[in-house]
Amino acid sequence: MGSGDILFTVVAKNIDVLAMPLVSLVYPLYCSVKAIETKSRIDGQQWLTCWVLYSLITLFELTFSKLIECKPDDVLSTAEKYIQENGPEAFERLIARADREARSSYSIFRDDYEY
């Protein structure tokens, strides 16, 4: 296997990591430079809006990164820890109670209502 094959394999396995900066940074930067060079007010306004939205999204992502990174593995490990500490019966009661509360809070019409 040559070095070209290894490079292609690395790029193919990490295309998502490489493509995101290209799409989210390089293309808007290129278009912004073109808009500055054309002196078009509308193009400049459009790309300024793009950069403001990008910065707001980035700030949101950085601020709430811990919530965004919540993974199902964390939920499973937390459930396993709860079962080890309290037993499977307590976990089943917890799930049943949450299910009852979810069903009762989403009910629009009551079945026992008499017209």
UniProtKB/TrEMBL annotation:
Coiled coil feature spans: none
Pfam families on file: TB2_DP1_HVA22
Protein topology in the membrane: Multi-pass membrane protein
Transmembrane segments: none
One GO cellular component term noted in the UniProt record for this chain: membrane
Entry's localization field: Membrane
Chief location of this protein within or outside the cell: membrane
Family to which the UniProt record says this protein belongs: Belongs to the DP1 family.
Annotated protein name in UniProt: HVA22-like protein
Gene source species: Salvia splendens
Lineage, top ranks: Eukaryota, Viridiplantae, Streptophyta, Embryophyta, Tracheophyta
